[in-house]
Amino acid sequence: MTNVTQATGTTGDLPRHDLSRDDPSGDDLAGDIEIDLTINADGWPDEERLHPLAARAFAAARREADLRYLPGSELSLVFSDDAAVQVLNRDYRGKDKPTNVLSFPGGDEDGPVFGPLLGDIVLARETVAREAEEAAGGFEDHLLHLIVHGILHLFGYDHQVDQEAEIMEGLETRILASLGIADPYRLDPSA
Questions:
Q1: Is 51 annotated for ligand binding?
Q2: Which of 31, 121, 140, 145 is most enclosed, with most CB atoms within 10 A?
Q3: What cofactor does its activity depend on (predicted)?
Q4: pLDDT band at 23, cuts 50/70/90?
Q5: What phi and psi, each to the nearest 5 degrees, are found at residue 121?
Q6: Does residue 190 belong to any structural domain of this protein?
Q7: Reduced to 3 states, what is the DSSP secondary structure of residue 115?
């Protein structure tokens, strides 16, 4: 768990971040946010590997989507399995099947700034692994994509209607490109 404060400027009352000093290992990428990880299923990499991935995903999303949140905010990631995610998906979305990622926003999505509790992102290991095998980029690239996807949901982005989906997918593509990850929405990965 890392809690690093690196806000170096402001736009009005909203924090702005200077990523020029970010550590590529991920240790300092989280900025002024606390990222809490819970691993409650077998088969996931350990926290020492997952935390830098989560911090990289958040830093890229923050930078590319210009996310605004209260300094000291918290983000929770739960690395779970298909069975647990199926229960959550059934109980909260009325869909009795596992899915790759679920996001549970922690605050008022209509406020000018998010936080202090950004919310929870829950990932299903078997589904993530299966999708990663089918994708061209591999497990870590797919996991980064899903964490970014979850983060955008916590900040009010959605993909239920075509116009919203275009905006969200465009942001995801830009964020992932900044991480060196190919567009996951391109139909032919060799193109």
A1: no
A2: 145
A3: Zn(2+)
A4: very low
A5: -120, 125
A6: no
A7: coil
Is there a contact between 30 and 4 (Cβ–Cβ < 8 Å)? yes
Q: What is the pLDDT of residues 42-56, one digit of tens each?
A: 999 999 999 999 999
- Give the range of the structural domain holding residue 162, as residue numbers without chain letter: 2-178
**Residue 66 belongs to some domain of the structure:** yes
Structure tokens at 158: 């959605």
Strand residues in 26-146 grouped as ranges (E) = 33-39, 73-80, 101-105, 117-124
User: What CATH number does the domain containing 120 carry?
Assistant: 3.40.390.30
**Looking at the 3D structure of the chain, how many domains does it have?**
1
CA distance 24 to 148: 17
Measured CA distances, 127 to 42, 45, 82, 123, 161 (Å): 13, 15, 7, 8, 24
Q: Is residue 185 part of a domain?
A: no
Q: Rounded to an integer, what is the distance from CA 15 to the centroid of its chain?
A: 19
**3-class SS of residue 63:** helix
For 42, phi then psi, to 5°, come to: -75, 155
Residue type, 157: Y
Pairwise CA distance, residues 56 & 53, whole Å? 5
Residue 34 lies in a domain: yes
Q: What does the block give as tokens for 181?
A: 């990850």
Q: Which two tokens stand for residue 58?
A: 């958040």
Between 120 and 113, where is the model more confident?
A: 120
